[in-house]
Amino acid sequence: MNLFHAGYQAIPNPDIHYGRKNADFGQGFYLSDDEFFCRRWAKERRGQQVYLNKYTLDLSGLAVKRFSRDREWFDYIQTNRAGRKDTLSQYDVIIGPIANDTIFDTNGILTSGLLDSDISLQALQLGPNYTQVVIKTKKGADALRYCSCEILPNEQLKSFEADERIEEAAYQEQLGQLLTNLLE
User: Fold this and answer.
1) How far apart are CA 171 and CA 74, in angstroms?
2) d(Cα 146, Cα 55) in Å, to the nearest integer?
3) Strands 50-57 and 2-7, bridge-based pairing
4) Cα dihedral: 108, 96, 48, 153 (round 10)
5) CB 74 within 8 A of CB 117
6) How many Cβ atoms are within 10 Å of 5's Cβ, its own excluded?
7) CA 143, CA 181: separation in Å to the nearest integer?
8) What's the rounded Cα separation, in Å, for the pair 64 and 90?
9) Average pLDDT, the chain
10) pTM over 0.85
């Protein structure tokens, strides 16, 4: 499996314990199998280069949990975002959709607890379906092979900004329509 991670440094030896414990799939090293997604959503930061790290992952012998946009996925995200104990810690790798409220600006309403969980799930099922692959264990990290990295030119990052705004506006429109329909 070819995987990609955009960030502000080359990461030949990812640390699965670095980062937020309350992310969608809990603590781990987050990647995507979608190179275009990683390029497109990489963010420019003043004074820093943006790197696209490239890896391969051999899933042989690994405990892998796969999600789709369903209730099980939603409940797992809610558990992790609330900072509760990881209920799937026995898995080396978790693969599933990225919750769009981490990509698009929704002011946190989808997972804040302000909305009924059924409404939140419907809202998180809207929009594009991008995949994340999270390495959760040392065994999973040992199966991840660093291939290379490249520096993404600022011009390339800027060229995607307009596309991102269009996609975000479409998502916000869908979300607004869903919430309007549910509240009527």
Assistant:
1) 18
2) 4
3) antiparallel
4) -120
5) yes
6) 21
7) 46
8) 9
9) 90
10) yes
7's enclosing H/E stretch is strand 2-7
Distance CA 143, CA 63 (A): 12
Phi then psi for residue 41, to 5 deg, are -100, 5
| Residue 107, pLDDT score | 62
Structure tokens at 46: 């003043």
Greatest alpha-carbon pair distance for the chain in Å reads 52
pLDDT(108) > 70: no
Residue type, 152: L
Please indicate whether residue 144 or residue 47 has the higher confidence score (pLDDT): 144
Q: Where are the alpha helices (DSSP H) in 34-153?
A: 35-41, 71-81, 117-124, 138-142
Round to whole Å and give the CA distance between 7 and 43. 8
Q: What are the CA-CA distances from residue 84 to residues 1, 21, 29, 79, 89 (Å)?
A: 30, 9, 18, 6, 12
91-103 burial code (b ≥16 CB/10 A, e <16): bbbbbbbbbbbbb
Query: What are the CA-CA distances from residue 39 to residues 5, 69, 102, 181 (Å)?
Result: 9, 23, 16, 35
The CA-atom distances, in angstroms, between 56 and each of 5, 109, 136, 146, 164 are 11, 35, 16, 7, 27
